[in-house]
Specification:
This protein has 834 residues and is α+β, with helices and mostly antiparallel strands. The protein has 4 domains: 2-30 and 68-438, no CATH class; 439-597, Rossmann fold (3-Layer(aba) Sandwich), CATH 3.40.50; 628-737, Galactose-binding domain-like (Jelly Rolls); 752-816, no CATH class. Helix content is 45%, strand content 18%. It has 28 helices and 29 strands. The strands form 10 sheets. It has a 5-stranded mixed sheet with strand order 12-7-13-16-15. The chain has a 4-stranded antiparallel sheet with strand order 17-24-19-22, with no helix packed on it. A 4-stranded antiparallel sheet has the order 18-23-20-21, with no helix packed on it. Strand 9 and strand 10 form a beta hairpin. The relative contact order is 0.11.
Length: 834
């Protein structure tokens, strides 16, 4: 009998492992990379990735440089783990393996967390069902279908954090404290987007304090304090970024356009019908089918699966069972069950952000603190895993009561619940846990290019072309769909925030970095104008201004839904040649061309677009009278967007124009405006009109371009989502000519020391005696003025030390890392008993 009990102890974990291994195989396509959407690929160059996180407060690799907006340094434990894995597995399998291991670890963690509480009697079978619940739910699907590492890490680590924490609080054993420290360190990659970690920490702190009660306050404070200490190396830099740069990010063009829509999508699903089954905005999100270049629903397969009433009913049954488990936890005064309540209540509150009166509270938060609202634009991603852990745990509590009350039915319940869970999760076992579009064959030419760049100057900045949009999202089309694993079809082609930055050691001018730095955003706007104006002189000036050393032209980039001509790929090579500063030096395959830029010091500063604010409003003068006027109209959209356009076909592109729009946002989203070029089909200007209920007059500049074309089209999109109405009044639209001042060069004082990184007050220069005065150079870079008695910059006796002072914050955090482990040496049960 003893041997049978031991067998049962291993049987259920083995079944869970077997299920997740089978699930992993079904969602793995040999010979492909797991890549797309928000992609992290440090394995492409582990040495460079390691160096970047060790000096991670200033990200010199992000275009012109930027303070770390994401907590990149929190990736350090994962990079070390990937390095170990790289000794065992091929490159293409590393990211797959990491997500599969996180999946398995999370399920096992939930099993042992539940078993610890249930005890011996029926413990293994109930813990098995609790672990199965953690696996077979829609939250798990939405974590892995377009995978992002930080969510998978939290999914894996959270149950183990709770296990080791409660063991230490209950028994005070050093080994539990030691394992708690190790798991907290291993879990730090969940802080890549710090708000995910902060949401966890708030709920975890409440959990610890409630569980500890009055008897183990000191132990609870030890766990909370050491959790902070073990993460200070990224917390301190993140606090610096939040205080000094968060508002700048919130005001970036991409976030101003995207964040309101993103939050509205969350509110659309933040209802009492969606939250219990963890149905989120991804059910109304789209991706591109690389074969057809058309947008398709991300969750299409799951939507059709849930259309069956019995399937959806099981999801609600699980939630009801969890509510029953909460009641039983309080009735039985279950210590951990009561402590688990914050992990249920707080996420439940935030996930219901579209339900009255919670939606009104979120609106108030946006009014009082736009930065906080920006941080909470995706409440589902911040709180869903906490909610999943709580639900899975309470399902175990509810089942424990049922098993004790109806002992004869326990085996039947285990079998029935298991079958129902597997049916509920069936699409995942058919290869739809990870979306097929995320399994891509990255051409070998890219890795050959990465190797080539590693042999070049690591500081040489790389410009990426085409530069057809400001959105930090790139689409590639690499050949036809290839045959996939087990007869499935792999959709070739990458779509997402980019992967080049992980293989190219040099700084790259990627659009995804625009939101972290106004200077990166300025470069994108200026270079896009230079390319689409087809003006080689301006292109050359910008290459010199921003000290670009290389240009990467990728002909496999596509723009879904737009004409191929909008990328200007047919014209760019000739434009680069006409600059007289650019030479083609390397070609990889049919699509990748590398150009070298000849150093040109003749241009120190260039003003390309005068009198244009960062949001593209024009503040200069216009000529009177207007050359075109349109009568007003009202746009009303219910549930879905509606569009309209106004064509001005006779406007010559070699003139500068100002579009003046008088409008009022009555309800819902403001109007989106795209002014497209009739020759290329490119959207030369994309923005949205004001949103505050008042009548506004706004002016937008169309600068002159040298494409010998005529005609622009004003495209209005009255955006709306399900359950909402958008009403916008346009009083008038007028087109006028504008006179632009000549571009001016600002020569740099020869006694100025220049650092080719985006200007930031955190940079300091010291000449051995004093801190030098800090100035803005070329409208983007750092400079320091030398004293009159100091040798000229670059002189033989001149030594200047330049340092990014906030980097000390990360170093301080690293220095404090050993302190929690010292507590183990100094630990005394008599002191820490309470």
């Amino acid at each position: 009998m003893k041997h049978f009990s031991t067998l049962l102890l291993f049987f259920f974990p083995a079944v869970l492992i077997a299920l997740t291994v089978f699930l992993s195989l079904q969602n793995y396509t040999p010979g492909t990379f797991l890549s797309g959407w928000d992609t992290l690929h440090p394995e492409f160059d582990l040495k460079t990735a390691f160096a970047r996180v060790l000096n991670g407060v200033w990200r010199a690799d992000q275009g012109l440089g930027a303070v770390a907006g994401h907590s990149h340094m929190a990736e350090l434990p994962r990079i070390i783990f990937l390095w170990i894995e790289s000794l065992l597995f091929p490159l293409a399998f590393l990211r797959y393996s990491y997500f599969f291991l996180m999946l398995i670890a999370g399920i096992l963690g939930m099993f042992f967390l539940t078993k610890k509480i249930i005890g011996r009697k029926n413990g293994s079978s109930i813990a098995f069902l609790s672990g199965l619940t953690y696996l077979a739910n829609l939250g798990t699907v939405q974590i892995f279908i377009v995978p992002f590492e930080m969510f998978a890490v939290q999914y894996a680590a959270l149950p183990w954090i709770l296990i080791t924490a409660t063991r230490f609080l209950s028994q005070g054993k050093l080994k539990d404290l030691f394992f708690f420290f190790l798991i907290i360190i291993a879990a730090s990659p969940m802080a890549y987007a710090a708000t995910l970690w902060y949401a966890f920490f708030i709920c975890f702190t409440l959990f610890i304090l409630i569980f500890a009660g009055k008897n183990q306050v000191k132990r609870a404070l030890l766990l909370i304090g050491t959790t902070i200490l073990l993460n200070l190396y990224w917390i301190l830099p993140n606090v610096y970024f939040t205080v000094t740069h968060a508002r700048q990010v919130q005001q970036s063009k991409v976030n101003q356009l995207f964040s309101p829509e993103a939050f509205a999508k969350n509110q659309e699903f933040g209802t009492i019908t969606n939250v219990p089954i963890l149905k989120s905005f991804l059910f109304d999100w789209q991706l591109v089918n690389p074969k057809t270049h058309q947008f398709e629903e991300v969750m299409a397969r799951w939507e059709s699966h849930l259309a069956h009433p019995a399937i959806q009913a099981f999801g609600y049954l699980v939630f009801v069972l969890a509510l029953f488990g909460i009641i039983q936890s309080f009735r039985r005064r279950n210590r951990i069950g009561i402590a688990m309540l914050p992990l249920f209540v707080i996420p439940f509150f935030f996930l219901l952000n579209g339900t009255f009166p919670i939606n009104r509270l979120f609106d108030a938060i946006g009014t009082v603190s736009p930065i906080l609202k920006e941080a909470l634009r995706f409440p589902f991603t911040k709180f869903s895993i906490l909610f999943m852990v709580a639900i899975s745990f309470y399902v175990g509590q509810g089942l424990a009561f049922i098993f004790n009350r109806f002992k004869s039915l326990s085996k039947g319940i285990v079998i029935s619940y298991t079958i129902a869970s597997l049916i509920y999760f069936l699409p995942a076992f058919q290869g739809n846990l990870i979306h097929p579009a995320m399994r891509v064959t990255i051409p070998n030419e890219y890795f050959a290019m990465f190797d080539w760049f590693r042999k070049q100057n690591p500081d040489g900045r790389v410009a990426l072309l085409p530069i057809y949009t400001f959105w930090g999202w790139t689409y590639y089309s690499w050949g036809l769909p290839a045959s996939g694993y087990a007869g499935r079809q792999l959709q070739a082609g990458y779509q997402g925030a980019g992967f080049l930055q992980f293989g190219i050691p040099q700084p790259i001018m990627d659009r995804d970095y625009n939101r972290w730095s106004t200077y990166n955003e300025l470069y994108q706007r200026e270079m896009s104008y230079a390319i689409y104006s087809q003006n080689p002189t301006i292109i050359a000036d910008l290459l010199a201004k921003y000290h670009i050393q290389w240009i990467l032209l990728d002909r496999s980039v596509i723009s879904p839904g737009n004409e191929d001509s909008s990328l200007l790929l047919w014209r760019i090579p000739a434009l680069l040649e006409q600059t007289g500063q650019v030479t083609l030096v390397k070609i990889f395959g049919n699509d990748l061309s590398i150009y070298k830029v000849t150093e040109n010091n003749s241009i120190q500063s260039t003003t390309i677009l005068p009198d244009v604010a960062p949001d593209e409003r024009f503040t200069g003068q216009v000529e009177e009278p207007p050359i075109a006027t349109f009568s007003g109209r009202q746009y009303k959209s219910i549930n879905t967007p509606t569009s309209d356009h106004m064509s001005i076909s006779d406007l010559s592109h070699d003139q500068a124009y100002v579009v003046t729009i008088k409008s009022r946002n009555v309800q819902g989203f403001p109007l989106q405006l795209c002014i497209s070029n009739d020759l290329t089909g490119h959207c030369d200007l994309f923005t949205h009109l004001s949103k505050d209920g008042q009548l506004h007059t706004e002016k937008f500049l169309l600068p002159p371009i040298s494409d010998y074309g005529t005609g622009y089209t004003l495209n209005f999109n009255n955006f709306a989502i399900s359950g909402q109405t958008s009403i916008n009044d346009v009083a008038s639209v007028t087109i006028s000519r504008a006179q632009l001042p000549e571009s001016s060069a600002q020569p740099v004082n020869p006694s100025t020391v220049v650092l080719d990184q985006a200007f930031d007050p955190g940079w300091i220069a010291w000449d051995g005696k004093q801190i030098l005065p800090h100035v803005l150079v070329n409208n983007w870079a750092n400079g320091w003025l030398m004293k009159s008695d100091h040798p000229p910059a670059g002189g033989p006796t001149n030594k200047i030390w330049i340092f990014f002072l906030p980097q000390l914050l990360e170093f301080i955090g690293f220095a404090l890392l050993p302190l929690p482990f010292l507590t183990i040496i100094l630990y005394d049960k008599r002191v820490w008993r309470k």
